Amino acid sequence: MATVDVEGVRKSYAGREVLSEMDLRMADGELICLLGPSGCGKTTLLRIIAGFVRPDAGRVVVGGADVTRLSASARRVGMVFQSYSLFPNMTALDNVRFGPRVAGLGKPEQIQRARELLDLVGLSAHEAKYPHQLSGGQQQRVALARALAVRPQVLLLDEPLSALDAKVRAQLREEIRRIQRDTGVTTVLVTHDQEEALSIADRVAVMNGGRLLQVASPATIYRAPSHGFVARFIGSGAVFSGVAEGGQVRVEHLSLAARAAAEHAHGTPVQIFIRPEKVRLQAMGGAVPDGAVSGEVCETIFLGALTRVRLSVHGTQTPLNIWADLASEHAEAFQPGSHVVAQWDPDAPRVMAGGDTAD
Amino acid sequence: MKAPIAWVFIAAFLVVCAVFLIAPTAMLAVQAVTDDDGLTLQYVATLGEYRYRVAFAHSLYLSLTSATVGVIAGGLIAFAVLKPDAPRLLRVVVTSFSAVAANFAGVPLAFAFIATLGSLGMLTTMLKNIGIDLYAIGFSLFSITGLTLVYSYFQIPLMVIIITPAIEALRPSWREAAENLGASSVQYWRMVGLPVLAPSLLAAWILLFGSAFSAYGTAYALTSGNISLVTTEISAVLSGNVSSEPQVGAALSVGMIVVMVLVLAASHILAARASRWTVKS
Ligand SMILES: Nc1ncnc2c1ncn2[C@@H]1O[C@H](COP(=O)(O)OP(=O)(O)O)[C@@H](O)[C@H]1O
Ligand SMILES: [Mg+2]
């Protein structure tokens, strides 16, 4: 097992920069989830670590050794692809022992190791089946076992669950986490599903447009996103672009309470991020207090103990939505169509520099 | 009755097969063993004559070699132009050329080769001028080797056309997975690429074998019947040049059909073994 350092890696295709100045340090045995929208360069980064793509600049260091110039077959970096990567002409067992086999291990050892790994992924009973006889989830388990059979220093998983249905997905996600802990292999899991990333990662790396925006624990990513994009992508609250004005952020004609805005120069563009559990709702009655907003309830989503209420803020040019999470027994009062006042503790919102919501 | 339209087409196809394939074959088979006096093996026995043994030997040799040359050369060409880093233009040119060349047969093909590689052909003369006298070192366009060469001219592009879809169906992720697991390119091809392609290669070989075995025009135009093939012998019988007994022609045809059936049966057994991983269980 090993640490992984990606240092100053850049990659362009036909003059278009796909990765710009990428730096990522991974501790030994860490599980990092790489999260970002489609086309942001996640696969490219993984393929650079695996050795399928040469970076234009920068280095990839695995366990202290610079592997940038090594071919993919010499790296001992295991990879699990999105789907359909099992060799169709081989049984599950033969797929898993492929690595030990090409490495020249004796046949009894190949088979023994393959059986251990099939056992680890819970597929011992299916070792004689061909890929087409296995379900999608089973195929991905075999692919995982196959990648681990060469005892890789690093394991890379490129959206391994995206072709599976939700139930199998959740199950296999937990299993990947368990196997990763058991084997202690340093792992990068690419996903575009934030729930997946937050639930299993040691750290989450959020990417957009070929850049890493924030690399932090799931809790930090959730509570203290560093960029509007991160907050928006994690989807855990409302993000608005506005202008810092002392202890408030002005969005169009509204002034939203946010003590953190005072750290930004008066009049500079900022983004304000308000998490739903911090928002309190009240039936509309009389004037709207300073720093609060009024709006109309658009929908309520029952989440069990909590109910998430979405309101559309009154009287803005661009439609603004605020979410509020309420205990379900209190949510009854806020049916769609009702007019409410939303307020929050001025210390609750995060204020981030930059007005560009796309960054 | 899930797809009645499909059944109509399948039924029509079966009727066409019955009328134009099975019935004539049966008639030929009957004709080959009967004469005015009833059953006889006399005509089948003529197949053992030297003349016809040579014809079968030539036809088999020509079909086996040209099919094998076609599968190997055509397969390699298709593989080379389908590589992801191969220029797109090359792919388009090779595919278009193959589509034309694979259908270029018969008298025009023979003529084209006589004009280039005949004893006074363009290429023969050019090579002679630089000191290589093809005909002096034993080559002749009008020999069985020459025929093999001419047949390869349509066999290779035919192979390119039929194997292209199979090569395109090889997933890049298999190759990358193999590489990722430490396999060399040779190991990938030996353990994954060729086994996956095997059923298609076998099917292609059969098709090429059949196309050479039943070809007639090119060989006749090139050798004027001097090199006997089963097809040219049948034609000789039918035109009454050798004998006036159509039963000999029928016996020869039945012999051809038997060879094709044997080849198909053998390939079927091989294909079943090569593709056991796609057989649904
Ligand atoms: N081989 C390539 N040639 C040209 N462009 C590429 C190539 N690979 C990826 N790209 C481009 O790089 C960008 C990032 O791709 P990718 O890393 O696959 O994104 P992601 O995995 O995050 O969806 C995309 O815009 C894609 O079109
Ligand atoms: Mg991708």
Give an overview of the whole structure.
The complex is a heterodimer of chains A (359) and B (281). Chain A has ten helices and 20 strands. The longest helix of chain A has 18 residues, at 166-183. Chain A has 359 residues and is an alpha+beta fold. In chain A, a hairpin with a 3-residue loop joins strand 16 and strand 17. In chain A, 47% of the residues are buried. The model of chain A has no long low-confidence stretch (mean pLDDT 90). A two-stranded antiparallel sheet of chain B has the order 1-2. Chain B starts with a helix and ends in a 7-residue tail after the last helix. Chain B has a single domain, classed as Orthogonal Bundle (MetI-like fold), CATH 1.10.3720.10. Chain B is globular. The chains are: A alpha+beta (359), B mainly alpha (281). The structure holds adenosine-5'-diphosphate (ADP) and magnesium ion. Magnesium ion is lined by residues 42-43, 158 of chain A. Adenosine-5'-diphosphate binds next to helix 1 of chain A.
Notable traits:
heterodimer; A: 359 residues; five-stranded antiparallel β-sheet; 25% helix; elongated; B: 281 residues; mainly alpha; MetI-like fold; two-stranded antiparallel sheet; 2 strands; 74% helix; globular; binds adenosine-5'-diphosphate; binds magnesium ion
